[in-house]
Design a protein that fits this description.
Length: 83
């Protein structure tokens, strides 16, 4: 849905080279694709840039069926994995 819309948390994470946490996809209004993501069962998401030689060229998405599933500890662990 993000790629079809040309916008979403993963695309923003990759393009801005920053972590994007969405606590509740069903109430998120920054991207049009979040409604479809919530309807598919994703309630929260964590998107991280995947840096290659200091530049992000891709993104990693982690989804949960729970609202607010990603705390600071989860973000730190995901950042270590993505690096």
């Amino acid at each position: 849905a993000q790629y079809l819309a040309g916008a979403g948390p993963c695309l923003d994470a990759a393009q801005a080279n920053e972590v994007v946490v969405v606590p509740d996809l069903s109430t998120e209004k920054r991207w049009p694709a979040t409604d479809q993501m919530a309807e598919a069962g994703a309630r929260s998401s964590l998107s991280l840039p995947l840096p290659i030689q200091a530049e992000a060229i891709a993104g990693l998405n982690i989804y949960s069926t729970r609202v607010a599933a990603f705390d600071e500890s989860a973000v730190q662990t995901a950042m270590e994995f993505a690096s």
